[in-house]
Amino acid sequence: MYESSVPVFIRLLDALGGVLKKGQQSCTDRKIPESVMLQSRLAPDMFPLSRQVQIACDMVKGGGARLAGVAVPSYPDDEVDFAQLLARIEKTKSFLRELDKASFEGSDKRTVTLKIAGNEMQFVGQPYLLLFVLPNFYFHLTAAYAILRHNGVALEKRDFIGGLPN
After folding, report:
1. Which end of the chain is more exposed for a tag (fewer CB within 10 A), N or C?
2. What is the CATH number of the domain that holds 39?
3. Which one-letter DSSP state was computed for residue 166?
């Protein structure tokens, strides 16, 4: 479970940081206020770029913590520029790197309880990772990438996937 989660999370958070840096540079080059890019959405009823990044980070720090059987750290959602969002990504990666690989033993069968919108949801570890955490993480990564791309940031597929695996 560790190998299917933490290294994947970190690699894709690295890629997310890379696309955000390109977004930041695009704002500088085109003299667009960062706040304009960070508040951009794909549709009126979707979250803006800044929130997509926050949720992506929250999804993997929560997923990693729950699978490892440790407390989920709470980060305030108060980032207002690219530098702060990049710092949040780094903080999330640091947390994930601190998780003990051994604590994931048996997590495929561990019960995970979440409260979402006031409702309690029960999962078993492996379906929690494969059918909840990863799809949600990929969704918010994709939304962030698409918002930047839609706003004219020069991105390619390799930016999203973080290059080829070693």
Report:
1. C
2. 1.20.120.450
3. -
Is the distance from CB of 129 to CB of 63 less than 8 angstroms?
yes
DSSP 79: -
| Cβ-contact 144, 24 below 8 angstroms | no
pLDDT digits (tens, 9 = 90+) for 105-117: 999 999 999 988 8
Residues of the domain holding 150: 6-100+125-160
Per-residue pLDDT, 90: 99
3-state secondary structure (DSSP) of residue 51: helix
Distance CA 138, CA 65 (A): 18
Which residue reads 């690295």 in tokens? 14
Instruction: Using alpha carbons, list the distances in angstroms from residue 101 to 45, 47, 68, 89, 106.
Output: 39, 33, 8, 20, 11
